[in-house]
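Researcher: I'm preparing a figure for a lab meeting and need a structural model of a single chain. I don't have an experimental structure, so a prediction will have to do for now. The sequence is pasted below. Please return the structure as C-alpha cells so I can convert it later.
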Amino acid sequence: MKCEILKKSIKIFLKFGFKSTTMDDIANKMAISKKTIYKYFKNKEQLVDESLSFFHEAIHTEVATICNKGFNAIEENFEIKKMFKDLLQNSGESPMFQLQKYYPETFKKVINNEFAMFKDCISQNLKKGIQEGLYRNNLNINITTRFYFSLVFSVHDPNLFTNEDRTINQLEIDALTYHTRAIATKKGIEILEKQLEKL
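Model: Understood. Here is the structure written out cell by cell.
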C-alpha cells in the first residue's frame, strides 16, 4: 500500500502542485481513508519527501535502461528527453520551483540527488559522444556537465521563462539543441538535424 500511495501521490503533486494538494485530495483520489495515509507517513512533508525520492529512483531506472539500448550519444539524449516528456506530460508548470518555495529542505535534497545522478549520466554521454566522433575531443567534461545541468534546470525557472515564451517541453528541446550545437562535430550536427526533423 505504501508503494501505491507514493506512486499516486507524486502524480497528483506534479499535476496539481505541492502546495495546493492536500492529504484529503490524495485520499479521495485513491479512494482510501486519510488514516491509511497517516499509517505510513506522519505528515504531508514526509509524503512529499518520500514520493519525490520514489520518483527519482524511477527516473534513474528509466535513464539507465535507455543508456543500455545502444543509441549513439545524441540519440540517447533525445530519448531521455522524450522519456521526461512522457513522465511529466500531465504536470503543472514549474513544479520544481514550487517545491523550492514551499518545501526548501526537500528541494535541496532533490537538487543534490538529481545533480549526482545526472552528473554521471551527462559525463558518460559526453565521453561516449567523443569516442563516436559526435562531440569535439577537447571538451572539459566537468565544466560542460555543469553547464548543461544548469541550462536544463534554468528553463523551469518562472522568473526567467513564462508560458508566453514557450512550453516547458519546447524550452527543454531548445536547451538540448543549444547544448548539442555547442559541443558537436560536423558529424554530430548532421545527427542532431535528423533528430530535430523527427520532432
